[in-house]
């Protein structure tokens, strides 16, 4: 849940960055959102989730959510190639998670 919170606050900050170009008051949301996101991500790391996995999930979900929301909110393009790229990012993060899980089990003597 903390990691999802980190993603949500990062996406909110990024979307607010675009909004701040027209309404500078959104810069406050940008600053608070990024700070909250990094604090939540740090908490996730303190709880023991490996950095590569935590960052991969955070980045993949952030990129995907931001692209989808920017298309819906700001009318930015969303092409089939972009959707394929997002799918590849998600698959890549899943592969990293699988590799990390195997490494943890191998380190613990479990195969």
Note down, in words, how this protein is organized.
By secondary structure, this protein is an all-alpha fold. The model has no long low-confidence stretch (mean pLDDT 92). Helix 1 packs across helix 3 and helix 3 packs antiparallel against helix 4. It has one domain. The protein contains four helices and no strands.
Could you give a quick summary of the protein structure above?
The chain is mainly α. The protein has one domain (about 1-105). It is built from 4 helices and no strands.
Features of this protein?
single chain; mainly alpha; 82% helix; 111 residues
Give the total of domains. Answer: 1
Describe the global form. Answer: flat
Q: Mean of residue pLDDT?
A: 92
| Major sheet attributes | none
Quaternary state of this entry equals single chain
Instruction: Report the portion of residues in β strands.
Output: under 5%
Question: What is the strand and helix layout of this fold?
Answer:
Blueprint: H1 2-20, H2 27-46, H3 51-74, H4 80-107
Helix pairs in contact: 1-2, 1-3, 3-4
